[in-house]
TrEMBL record:
Keywords: Cell membrane, Membrane, Transmembrane, Transmembrane helix. The chain crosses the membrane at residues 34-53, 65-88, 100-122, 137-156, 264-290, 302-324, 344-364, 376-394, 400-417. The keyword Cell membrane applies. InterPro entries: Poly_Biosynth_Transport, Polysacc_synth. This is Uncharacterized protein. It comes from Methanolobus halotolerans. It is a multi-pass membrane protein. It is found in: Cell membrane. The keyword Transmembrane helix applies. GO terms for cellular component: plasma membrane.
C-alpha cells in the first residue's frame, strides 16, 4: 500500500486506507475502468497468445499476409461504424435507450455489408497479395465475418454506453476461443488464421446479442429523430475516428506493398506487443467519456484518471522495454529483428496516453471539429512520414514516424489544455 500513500497528496491530500480503496472501487468511473481494463487485458493478452501460436505454426510470409487481411477487416468495420459508436455513449442517457441501440446497430450492419461487397469487387485490381478472396467460398466467409465483426463491435459499445462493462468483459471472454482454432485450421495457410478469427466473431456476436436482449428490446427499427439529433456529432466523430484508426489498420498493407511479407509480420508483432502498454490508458479514457456523458464533473474525473494511468503506465513501459527481446523471442527467432521498433513504440507511450485523454474531453464538450483537425494532422503526419521513412529505414521507419507524430501531438494537446484551462 506504500504507493497509495505516496500518491495521496495528488488525489486529495490525505492518506488512503483500505476503506477508501473499497469505496473507490464502487465508484462508476473506477468500476467501469476496471472491467474495461480487464476486457482489454483479456483481448490483448489472448491476441498476444494467438499471434504467438500463429507465428510458430505458420511461415512468416503467411503471417504477414494474414495481418494485412485482418487489418483490412478492422478498417472496414471502422468505416462502417459511421460514428455511432460514439453517439451510443453520448446519447444513451439523452434519448430512448432502445431507439439509440436499434438504430445504431441496424445502420452499421447494413453499411458494413455494403462496404465489404465493394471491397471484394475491387480487391483483385488493387491488392494482388490477397487475391485468394477471389475464390467464392473465401469471399463469402470474409463478408460474413465483416458483418459479424461489425455487430460484435457495436454490441460492445452498447455495453459501455449502458455502463455494463461486465458484459463487455464477458463478450471478450468468448472471443478468446479463437486461439485453439489455429491448430486444426493450419491446412488453410494464411486464410486459416483469418477463419479462426471469423468463427469466433460469429460465436461472440450471438452471445453478445443474447446478453444485450436482456437489457433492451432489440428490433429492426430506425429512429429518424435520433438520427437527426445525433447527425452532426456522429458524422464528426466518424471522420475523426476514421482518421485516427486508419493509419494503424492500413500500415500492414502499406508495409506489405513497400517492404515485403516478412517485414509486415515483424511490424504487426511488435505493434501487438506494444499494445500491452496502451491497455490501461485506453480503458480509463473510455470510462472518462462514459462518466462524463452521465453528467460527472470533467476536471475532477480527469485528475483521478490521470493518476490511475500514471500508476499503471510506468511499470508497464519499464517491463516491456526491459523484457522486449525475451517476449519477441517467444514468437520465433525471426521476430527479434523487430526489437528496435518495439522499443521506440514503448518510449512513445507517454505521448500516446496524453493524446488519448484529449479525445474524450473534446467529445464531451461537443468540440468535434477541433478533434477532426487534430486527427487529420495525426493521419497526414503518420502516413506521410511512414511512406518516406519506410523506404530508408524499413519497419523502423514507422517507429520514427510514430514518435515524431506523437511528440507534435503532445505539443498541440498542451497548447489546447492551457487555452481551455484544463491545466
Amino acid at each position: 500500500m506504500k504507493w497509495l500513500q505516496i500518491l495521496s497528496p495528488i488525489i486529495g491530500g490525505r492518506r488512503i486506507n483500505v476503506e477508501d480503496l473499497t469505496a473507490s472501487l464502487k465508484d462508476p468511473l473506477y468500476r467501469n475502468s476496471i472491467f474495461l481494463l480487464l476486457g482489454r487485458l483479456l483481448n490483448v493478452g489472448v491476441g498476444f497468445l494467438f499471434w504467438l501460436i500463429a507465428a510458430r505454426l505458420y511461415p512468416t510470409g503467411e503471417v504477414g499476409v494474414a495481418t494485412a487481411l485482418i487489418s483490412t477487416l478492422g478498417l472496414i468495420v471502422f468505416i462502417s461504424s459511421m460514428g455511432f459508436n460514439f453517439s451510443l455513449i453520448r446519447f444513451i442517457n439523452l434519448s430512448a435507450k432502445e431507439s439509440v441501440l436499434n438504430t445504431s446497430i441496424i445502420i452499421t450492419t447494413i453499411v458494413s455489408a455494403f462496404v465489404a461487397i465493394i471491397y471484394l469487387l475491387i480487391v483483385n485490381n488493387v491488392l494482388h497479395n490477397i487475391s485468394l478472396l477471389q475464390k467464392t467460398g473465401y469471399a463469402a466467409f470474409f463478408l460474413l465475418t465483416v458483418v459479424a465483426n461489425s455487430m460484435f463491435f457495436m454490441s460492445g459499445e452498447a455495453f459501455k454506453a449502458l455502463r455494463d462493462t461486465k458484459d463487455f468483459f464477458l463478450q471478450n471472454l468468448v472471443l478468446s476461443s479463437r486461439v485453439p482454432l489455429l491448430i486444426p485450421l493450419v491446412y488453410l495457410g494464411n486464410f486459416g488464421i483469418f477463419v479462426a478469427i471469423g468463427i469466433t466473431y460469429i460465436l461472440s456476436t450471438i452471445f453478445s446479442f443474447h446478453l444485450l436482449s436482456k437489457k433492451a428490446n432489440l428490433k429492426a427499427k430506425i429512429d429518424k429523430v435520433f438520427l437527426k439529433e445525433s447527425f452532426t456529432f456522429s458524422s464528426g466523430n466518424y471522420i475523426s475516428n476514421l482518421l485516427y484508426e486508419s493509419p494503424s489498420l492500413l500500415m500492414p498493407t502499406i508495409i506489405l506493398s513497400l517492404v515485403g511479407k516478412e517485414e509486415a509480420a515483424l511490424y504487426y508483432i511488435a505493434y501487438a506487443v506494444s499494445n500491452l502498454i496502451w491497455i490501461a490508458p485506453t480503458a480509463i479514457s473510455t470510462s472518462l467519456f462514459i462518466e462524463g456523458s452521465y453528467g460527472e464533473g470533467i476536471k475532477r474525473n480527469l485528475m483521478r484518471s490521470g493518476v490511475a494511468v500514471l500508476v499503471l503506465l510506468v511499470p508497464s513501459i519499464i517491463f516491456i522495454y526491459v523484457f522486449g527481446a525475451t517476449i519477441l523471442q517467444l514468437f520465433g527467432a525471426d521476430y527479434i529483428e523487430s526489437l528496435p521498433l518495439l522499443q521506440i513504440l514503448v518510449l512513445s507511450s507517454f505521448f500516446v496516453a496524453l493524446h488519448n485523454f484529449l479525445v474524450p474531453i473534446l467529445n464531451l464538450q461537443m468540440k468535434v471539429n477541433k478533434l477532426i483537425k487534430i486527427n487529420l494532422l495525426r493521419f497526414l503526419m503518420l502516413i506521410g512520414l511512414s511512406y518516406i521513412l519506410l523506404a530508408e529505414y524499413g519497419i523502423l521507419g514507422f517507429g520514427y514516424a510514430w514518435m515524431i507524430t506523437y511528440i507534435v501531438l503532445t505539443l498541440v494537446t498542451l497548447r489546447i489544455s492551457r487555452k481551455e484551462g484544463w491545466i
